[in-house]
Design a protein that fits this description.
The chain is 49% helix and 8% strand. The chain is globular. A hairpin with a 5-residue loop joins strand 4 and strand 5. The protein is of the alpha+beta class. The protein contains 19 helices and 8 strands. Strands 1-2-6-3 form a 4-stranded antiparallel beta sheet, sandwiched between helices. A two-stranded antiparallel ribbon has the order 4-5. The protein has a two-stranded antiparallel sheet with strand order 7-8. The N and C termini lie far apart (66 Å). The chain has 2 domains: 85 residues; 325 residues, no CATH class. Helix 1 packs across helix 3 and helix 14 crosses helix 19. The structure holds iron/sulfur cluster (2 copies). One iron/sulfur cluster binds next to helix 14 and helix 15.
């Protein structure tokens, strides 16, 4: 019996030292100096404990009464700690309902004309649209006029990486040209290819779902889910104009489709780690371009099957993508206003195709994000423009959520000349998915004890206000 107890204890101590070692190696690989020091200390402590245990075993300590008491006590404590960290606590039933679980009042469909990007990019002073919009929304006019004078986020003079931002801005703009190119009506609502016309292909929803998801992943998506469309998440009116199609501005958007294929592409941990510097903007634009490319081809694929399909991507949104992604089971809405996925945290960009092709909807998920965000607050503490609220969620346009202040966030983007991404960088869910981080994510999705412990440890290992990391050599902005 004693031999079995000693074997279990030795295995547990060596196991935790192994996990400590993987975390130490992971921190070096991540380029996290502070975390490397703490992980090194933690691993040394775990290893020392295992060595001392083996030494005491050899010295026969556990054959004495006091030694046996220590051994049994240690094993009981270890078993309790393991149970507390691994048990699965009650599910968050609201999260399992997706966005329907968050609706507590009247939700008005979002009007794209009111979005900060549309106001700043699409409404030109002295235009008819300017007159119409500010007559209905005088509250924005003065504020937007000042904002416009400062320029947009894409590397105007005076940015955070001035005077060496040119190369990175050039790369970001190169990617940005792809979604614009893919935003004309023939691309976002493709017609059936001439060779396939009149040959509607009948598929069962199961088969159509398998084909559609498989094709989306083959095109480069990292995650894909299907949502049955809640019409509230389709914009009510068009507000973004990119190729002088002014007749579309203010046009009502009909809800024509029943399903949405929603997908996410992973943003590089290394590039996001540099936020708010220019490499993070290259990464955002690269993934918007990738998303536009996937959405356009997917819409074309569905059109060739004989069904109607519309692509939603950076330069042509019909769908409000974050709530739709929640309904498609890709993740949960976090305090920072982005989708948080289990696989990559908020380090993703989204795209979608809405369609009348019958598909099998996925179910929303409960990963403990609501609970974790209540404990954590890190994004709100690190946001330089105080755009992310502290405290609990509140009702906003009929839904319960943390309301990001998009105005002050955009204002900060204009100041630094990038899309910032500090909140995405510091979020504990954003760590690279190395083995120890995968273990942590698995545990925090299970219970509150793990959420509390690992939120606290994240502050210890990475700091309450983690600093940006160095970019890869090719994307350096310092000479
Ligand atoms: S940083 Fe913390 S509070 Fe903010 S979204 Fe991530 S987990 Fe939630
Ligand atoms: S992108 Fe930057 S400014 Fe905007 S909410 Fe996140 S941290 Fe704040």
């Amino acid at each position: 019996m004693l031999t079995v107890l000693i074997f279990i204890a030795a295995l547990a101590l060596l196991g935790q030292a192994f996990i400590g070692l993987t975390f130490f190696v992971s921190c070096i690989w991540e380029g996290e100096k502070r975390a490397t020091v703490f992980a090194g200390l933690q691993f040394s402590g775990m290893l020392a404990l295992a060595v001392v245990f083996l030494f005491l075993t050899g010295a026969g300590l556990f054959e004495t009464d006091i030694g046996l008491t220590f051994l049994v006590g240690g094993l009981v404590l270890g078993a309790i700690a393991s149970f507390l960290l691994m048990r699965r606590t009650a599910a968050n039933l609201r999260a399992l309902e997706g966005t329907r679980g968050l609706i507590i009042g009247n939700v008005k469909r979002h009007d794209e004309r009111e979005i900060v990007f549309a106001r700043n990019r699409s409404i030109r002073p002295s235009s008819e649209q300017y007159r119409v919009f500010y007559r209905e929304h005088p509250e924005y006019e003065e504020y937007d006029a000042k904002r416009r004078e400062k320029g947009g986020p894409l590397g105007h003079p005076g940015t955070i990486d001035t005077p060496n931002e040119g190369l990175n801005v050039a790369a970001a703009l190169a990617s940005l040209s792809i979604p614009i190119y893919l935003s004309t009506p023939d691309k976002v609502e493709p017609e059936t290819h001439p060779e396939m016309r009149g040959k509607k292909i009948n598929l069962s929803p199961e088969e159509a779902t398998e084909r559609t998801k498989g094709y989306t992943k083959t095109l480069g998506a990292d995650l894909v889910g299907i949502a049955e469309i809640n019409p509230l998440w389709i914009y009510s009116h068009r507000g973004e104009i990119f190729y002088e199609n002014w007749e579309d501005w203010g046009k009502e958007i009909e809800v024509r489709h029943r399903y949405a294929v929603v997908f996410a592409v992973e943003m590089s941990f290394e590039m996001v780690g540099t936020g708010p510097h220019t490499p993070t903007m290259i990464e955002s634009m690269r993934n918007y371009a990738k998303g536009a490319h996937i959405a356009t081809q997917l819409a074309s694929f569905i059109a060739n099957l004989g069904y109607s399909a519309t692509a939603s991507h950076l330069r042509h949104y019909e769908a409000v993508l974050v709530p739709m992604a929640v309904d498609a089971g890709l993740g949960e809405l976090g305090r920072l206003g982005y989708l948080i996925t289990k696989e990559f945290g908020p380090r993703v960009r989204l795209g979608a195709v809405t369609t009348d092709l019958p598909l099998m909807p996925d179910k929303p998920v409960d990963m403990g994000v609501e609970d974790f965000c209540r404990i954590c607050n890190k994004c709100a503490m690190c946001c330089p423009s105080n755009s992310i609220p502290l405290g609990d969620r509140a009702m906003c346009n009929g839904s319960l959520r943390w309301k990001l202040n998009a105005e002050t966030c955009f204002e900060y983007w204009g100041g630094v000349g990038t899309d910032c991404n500090i909140c995405m960088r510091v979020c504990p869910w954003s760590h690279a998915r190395t083995f120890p981080h995968k273990v942590v994510v698995e545990l925090v999705t299970r219970n509150r004890t793990s959420r509390r412990l690992f939120s606290f440890m994240d502050d210890i290992f990475y700091g309450k206000r983690p600093k940006p990391k160095a970019p890869p050599r090719w994307a350096q902005f310092n000479n």
